[in-house]
């Protein structure tokens, strides 16, 4: 199965950004390749809800609330 890693690597080296979906964050590959830390993945998996942060007009990021 091609996960697009080779294509993504090429784009990243060229200086273009790359957005990864939530599903990728939950894969073993994401942790194994260092894209996310195990604690981050665990926190996402255990979350009971999310918050939507509006950072600019037309831009929003969905986040898992963290403990303060």
Task: Write structural notes for this entry.
This protein is an alpha+beta fold and 68 residues long. It has one domain (21-68). It contains 4 helices and 2 strands, in the order ααααββ. The protein has helices at residues 5-13, 22-25, 28-32, 38-46; strands at residues 51-56, 59-63. A two-stranded antiparallel sheet has the order 1-2. Mean pLDDT is 76; it is low at 6-12.
In short:
With 68 residues, the protein is α+β, with helices and mostly antiparallel strands. It is built from four helices and two strands.
Comma- or semicolon-separated keywords:
single chain; alpha+beta; 2 strands; 68 residues; globular; two-stranded antiparallel sheet; 4 helices
The value of Rg in angstroms is: 14 Å
What's the structural domain tally? 1
Unreliable runs: 6-12
Number of strands: 2
Strand share of the residues? 15-25%
- Mean model confidence by pLDDT: 76
Our measurement of the CA-to-CA distance between the termini, rounded to an integer number of angstroms, reads: 40 Å
Q: Name the helix and strand elements from N-terminus to C-terminus, one letter apiece.
A: HHHHEE
Question: Helical region count?
Answer: 4
User: What order do the strands of the largest sheet run in, or round the barrel if closed?
Assistant: 1-2
> Which overall shape is indicated by the principal axes computed on the Cα atoms?
globular
Largest sheet: 2 strands, antiparallel
Helix content: 25-40%
Query: Would you tell me the structural class of the helices and strands?
Result: alpha+beta
């Amino acid at each position: 199965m091609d996960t697009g890693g080779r294509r993504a690597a090429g784009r990243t080296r060229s200086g273009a950004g790359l957005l990864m979906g939530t599903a990728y964050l939950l894969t073993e590959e994401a942790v194994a390749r260092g894209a996310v830390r195990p604690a981050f993945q665990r926190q996402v998996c255990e979350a009971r809800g999310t918050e939507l942060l509006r950072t600019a007009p037309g831009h929003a990021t969905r986040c898992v609330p963290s403990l303060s």
